[in-house]
What does this fold into?
Amino acid sequence: MAVDFSFLLPLLATSFGIYLILALSFNLEYGYAGQPNLGKVFFYSVGAYAAGAITTRVLWALAGAPANVAFMQAPGAAIRQAFARSNPGAILGLFVVSLLAAAVIGAAVGYLAAYPALRLRGDFLAIVLIAVGEAGRVFGRNYEPLAGGVFGLPGVPNPFAWLPARADYAAYAILVLAIAAGMYLFAVRLSNSPFGRLLKSVRDDELAASVYGKDAPRAKGHILAIGSGMAAVAGALYVFYVQQVYADDFIPLISFAAVTMVILGGVANHKGTLVGAAFMTLVDFVTRPVFLAILGINWQPPFDLNYVRYLVTGLIIVLVLLFRPKGLLAEGPVDTVAMRVAQSWKTPATVDEPARDDS
It folds into this structure.
């Protein structure tokens, strides 16, 4: 009997879109501005918490749920899901509002976190931001009003929950890919703008950029705000896909997955980031225990397959840094109108001239 794998396409497409947005945000921060934001998962979780809190509480109020039903437990989740299925306009509107709120809150948190963090440089900045990401996860896990604590917050409906089964996930995958495509175009335009050139100058020689009158701390603060807002949007999209907020989903591996996508594809090269995101999406999928079940393999390994993902991610980082430090696609020149005009003014190939008789 043939197995139907059609359900995998929306799953992979949604994961790819979310990963791409996350990787693009890290590429802008690290590839163009030289800021190793290894606390990327913290801003990812900020968007998730914002989207989950807004959607569940507004749906709860609109549904007029009885007071004796637990908000954060299965009965409350069922009420929210049922209301979303019967009110398409409400859930679609909430989805848009939640994405916008996640972007604004993520950008604000990124901007506020930028100035204390930017007192540190290089490895020290990376270590501090890793700690911030882990502290955020621990806080979310223990502060129940935020996202249900250790039990999580269920009942964040798919914005297309009113569609038939499978069609809802397919529609959501298309929407996520469309948002990711918009983010990709935004990142390309931003990195090829005067601001993008400023970021590169700060990355390559901050002192020289400051001597020429550029406000390097302000530029780095702005790009961390932009990158954090993009990461928060990715977190919000993730929550609507898994339909719950669970603090222990936001582990440091997410930050290192974004790092792997960027260095594998090519630092400061958005096309390379796209390739890296596609590759890591497949790696993430095949290293999950559910992959064996989908293939009909009942083998139970004597270890947790989830740790294979950690091993593979670390191995990819080490191998790329050793043998392909510029990634699969090396960084290219900034693509601006001035650069294209300058290239068009290059001296054309010399035309063969008649031989002179010097005798």
